[in-house]
Amino acid sequence: MRHIAVIGSGPAGYYTAEAAQKQWGDDVRVDVFDMLPVPYGLIRTGVAPDHQSIKGVSRRYEKTALTENVRFVGNVKVGEHITIPELQSLYDAIVIATGAPHDRKLGIEGEELGNIFGSAAFVGWYNGHPQFADLDPKLLGKHAVVIGMGNVALDVARILAKTEAEFEGADIVSHALDLLRASKIEKITILGRRGPHQIMMTPKELGELACLERASPRVDKEDLPDEEDDLILEPGLRKSVTHLRSFAAIPENIHAEKPIEVEIDFFASPVSFSGKDGAVGSVRVERTTVETGRAKGTGEYYDIPAELVVSCIGYHTAHIPDVPFDDRMGRFANDEGRILPGIYCVGWARRGPSGTIGTNRPDGFSIIEKVVEDINSGILGRGDKQGRSGFDALAEARGLDIVTFRDWKKIEEAEEQAAREGAPREKFVDIEAMIRAGR
């Protein structure tokens, strides 16, 4: 019998558990650990609440989680409640699938001012992550600035621009909806250091900006390259740039009909923030040019009003004691997923915050292939470790309050019963409340 510990219950974690099942069948036991009492990682707290079809992928993970040889072990923090060496003594292999939950810093003057947030915190706030439930952003100013050229920046801008009616069917938490309902924001500026041909925005998400009830997207025609230059782009990016061209062609009278403007400002690099009374009030921006794909400052500066700032420039993985870390890359130090003998990483914990949800499936299967290689080469043991029973004895001795997948199903049922009209659920944002519901 092989015993695998997977740390992290998001897509990478459950794809790894699925791969282990397919590899060993009934001859494997997989324990999927998570510091929260609820599974699915960024599917629950990162995917936009109005993108329920994407969140539906969790049904695949549930199918894996409900099998006898895969167990969800929630409310257990590896590195605090149990150490990596202790897990090594119990399991044949440890696969770290913790994702990249922390925001990258901009590293510019004034970043410590109030009402400036990273996207992990801000998205976590409106998605009901317990760590960010008390964030309390102020939405009473007229101007918001979103920094970044990816889908997360689009998500943040779209959430800020939507009417309450447009959240029909979304699982945005009530505390966020209450603040958004009272929002006074009239202009949202999305800042990107490079140009239209360097964006990471996908066509579907970019196209949604044109379908908002009270907001109109704006792009400066002068920022767009010659149209024939689009021919060299790969098809997805070409479609995205086509959306940008359509935004630039929107007549001024259409903009005037909608109370919120969403402007995408290209070739614009934030260099500092300023404000008063401890809160941000403006951002200084340097105009850039793109040379060999990289942004270069021109020395031309201008200021943009900004009473709210959300930085969406990327994430880094959290450290775990006793696991080598690559601080420069913001991920675990690894060689194609191998960290140390018997310790592996997968998903964003391996490669950094890149790729889609689906990218994690081949990643999970690949790492299990490496585990098999290491078993066959004698790097790993004979398969005589205690695994689940050993962990349970240790957890009981330490008084750990473990949440199982069946407990989670009770939490899920309680969230569905508490949903406001038109919403699929009302998420618990307090860990103790989650645990009580699970019991």
What does this 3D model show about the protein?
This protein has 439 residues and is an alpha/beta fold. The chain contains 16 helices and 19 strands. The protein has two domains: 222 residues, Rossmann fold (3-Layer(aba) Sandwich); 213 residues, FAD/NAD(P)-binding domain (3-Layer(bba) Sandwich). The strands form five sheets. The chain has a six-stranded mixed beta sheet, with helices on both faces. A six-stranded parallel beta sheet has the order 6-14-7-8-10-9. The longest helix is centred in the C-terminal third of the chain and has 17 residues. It is globular, with a radius of gyration of 23 Å.
Mean pLDDT: 95
DSSP strand count: 19
**Rg result:** 23 Å
What are the low-pLDDT stretches, counting only 5+ consecutive residues below 50? none
CATH class of the largest domain: Alpha Beta
Portion in beta strands:
15-25%
Count helical runs: 16
Write a short abstract of this structure.
This protein is α/β, with parallel strands linked by helices and 439 residues long. It has helices at 11-24, 42-45, 52-55, 58-65, 84-90, 119-127, 151-161, 174-181, 203-207, 235-248, 252-257, 348-351, 360-376, 388-398, 405-417, 431-438; strands at 2-7, 28-34, 70-74, 93-96, 102-103, 116-118, 143-147, 187-191, 215-219, 260-265, 268-276, 279-291, 294-305, 308-311, 315-316, 325-326, 331-332, 338-340, 343-345. Helix 1 packs across helix 4 (58-65) and helix 1 (11-24) crosses helix 13.
